[in-house]
Design goal:
The chain is of the alpha/beta class and about 325 residues long. It is about 45% helix and about 15% strand. It has a six-stranded parallel beta sheet with strand order 2-1-3-4-5-11, sandwiched between helices. Helix 1 (about 5-10) packs across helix 2 (about 15-25), helix 1 packs across helix 3 and helix 8 (about 160-170) packs parallel to helix 9 (about 190-205).
């Protein structure tokens, strides 16, 4: 690979002039600029990106850290981030923390050392809060609200409204024994969705019923077995996310229950799988693409010294599909 000195020699200019042309850091005479560009094309010269990042204190890289890449919500979020970053001339470095605090912290330190322009993170680890407090690069936290953390910005959907929408829809479909598979209450998403369900029950004078469940497929299967054991009369289920809803459907169907004739089911997220599986899952739709795009926009605005909104709560909507029905045939 050609060096910057070889380009300079071919163009008949100094290496500093080549650098100025490439970085646009100073005016260069048009005739010299054209000679440099011609020499770059002839030699196939490519700058050392790492060296440029160290010199300019910017790598044009945005880091993305998620807790579980197996959850389609996070892969769809990462795809939205990558698309928005690419259109703005940035690249992403994707990291999967596996809910491991040590691995998550190592990823953050790696991005700092690489002079990443920003960090987009969804974390389930309390210890990460302490690391983010002193993080020297802008950090946008997505889908969670961490306490005691002064992050650059927070982006989440209206989880409380989502919990209400799911509960109200099931009651409107004729359900009377609705069980909420609530997500982890250590996360703001789990707390707010459950609170929305609780408030709807209170307004209707109906006792709340719940089972704790993690945000993954296997946890959904276990929670569904608990549902059959402890709530045999249930006729409506609010799953904490779509992957859990899919596992609940499989367990209930195997046990002989018809969906939605016997038990109606609502998920949360609106991942692609929710509309591809059979039956298609009724769900509360989070604006996943908008969340990723906004996260990138905030980081770029921060880098450019522009204003942005720190607290961002995006709207949700109910998407009715095949696991619920307004008229139930029993």
């Amino acid at each position: 690979m050609a060096s910057i000195r070889e380009v300079a020699k071919l163009a008949g200019v100094s290496a500093a002039t080549v650098s100025r042309v490439m970085n646009g850091t100073a005016n260069v005479e048009e005739e010299k600029r054209l000679r440099v560009l011609d020499a770059i094309e002839k030699t196939g010269f490519r700058p050392n990106e790492l060296a440029r990042a160290l010199f300019k204190k910017s790598s044009r890289i945005i880091g993305v850290i998620v807790p579980n890449i197996e959850n389609p919500f996070f892969s769809e979020l990462a795809k939205a981030v990558e698309e928005a970053a690419y259109l703005s001339g940035y690249r992403i470095l994707f990291c999967n923390s596996d809910d491991d605090p040590e691995k998550e912290n190592m990823n953050i330190q790696m991005l700092v050392q690489m002079n990443a322009d920003g960090l987009i993170i969804t974390t389930n680890c309390d210890s990460t809060s302490r690391v983010l407090v002193d993080c020297p690069i802008p950090a946008v936290i997505v889908d969670r609200k961490l306490t005691q953390v002064e992050a650059t910005a927070f982006i989440e959907s209206d989880h409380y409204k989502g919990g209400r929408l799911a509960a109200e829809h099931l009651f409107a479909c004729g359900c009377r024994n609705v069980v909420c598979m609530r997500g982890p209450l250590g996360y703001s998403s789990g707390r707010q969705r459950y609170q929305g369900y609780r408030d709807v029950c209170a307004e209707r004078g109906i006792a709340e019923q719940w089972i704790d469940c993690e945000y993954n497929y296997e946890a959904g299967k276990e929670a569904a077995q608990e549902l059959l054991k402890h709530f045999p009369e249930t006729d409506g289920v609010i799953a904490c996310n779509d992957m859990v809803a899919i596992s609940v459907y499989k367990v209930l169907s195997k046990a002989g229950h018809r969906i939605p004739e016997d038990i109606q089911l609502v998920g949360f997220d609106d991942i692609k799988f929710s509309s591809l599986c059979t039956p298609e899952i009724t769900t509360v739709s989070q604006p996943i693409h908008d969340m990723g795009t906004l996260a990138v926009d905030i980081i770029i605005r921060h880098v450019e010294g522009k204003e942005f909104q720190k607290e961002n709560v995006l709207d949700v909507k109910l998407v009715e599909r095949e696991t619920t029905a307004k008229i139930i045939a029993k």
